[in-house]
Amino acid sequence: MSKVMKLHDLQPAPGSRRNRKRVGRGPGGTDKTAGRGHKGQKSRSGAGKGLFFEGGRSTLISRLPKRGFNNVGTTYEVVNLSQLSALEGGSFDRAALEQAGLVRRKNRPVKLLGSGELSRAVTVRVDAASASAVRAVEAAGGRVELTQAQAGETEKAE
């Protein structure tokens, strides 16, 4: 009759597992300097100074010339006209769009885009709107109201 092996019977093969070397703990080969040599930065505790550390001088990345530009623009929550036409009601603001599930992130401004058709008059109050979206809403008999912060910037851009 063969013995059935069970999980609690499993153990590593003899000699395959060794205890870790505890350096700097008395005589026995790894005493005294504990394999770090004598003095110097790398012999001290916390010696790893990071990938780009160059002994205290400025790193290469900061010595090279900088080119181009970093234009961090505004990221909008986008609502299309096709999404508005699928909703019931004639007036939409941020709260109504959040309730309908079209706007999820509360810290981003809302922008109306002109993708899709609009067959009825609606009033939309958003932070920004594309020119094609404004034309389409007004052609359907509605109007787009921009919030105060964005309204001034849109007028300057036109």
TrEMBL record:
Pfam families attached to this UniProt entry: Ribosomal_L27A
Domain Large ribosomal subunit protein uL15/eL18: 78-145
Entry GO CC: cytosolic large ribosomal subunit
GO biological process, alphabetically ordered: translation
Annotated region described as Disordered, given as residue ranges: 1-53
InterPro entries: Ribosomal_uL15, Ribosomal_uL15/eL18, Ribosomal_uL15/eL18_sf, Ribosomal_uL15_bac-type, Ribosomal_uL15_CS
Keyword Ribonucleoprotein: yes
Keyword terms, alphabetized: Ribonucleoprotein, Ribosomal protein, RNA-binding, rRNA-binding
GO molecular function, one term: structural constituent of ribosome
Keyword Heme found: no
Protein role: Binds to the 23S rRNA.
Family, as annotated: Belongs to the universal ribosomal protein uL15 family.
Subunit structure as annotated in this protein's UniProt entry: Part of the 50S ribosomal subunit.
Protein name: Large ribosomal subunit protein uL15
Organism: Deinococcus proteolyticus (strain ATCC 35074 / DSM 20540 / JCM 6276 / NBRC 101906 / NCIMB 13154 / VKM Ac-1939 / CCM 2703 / MRP)
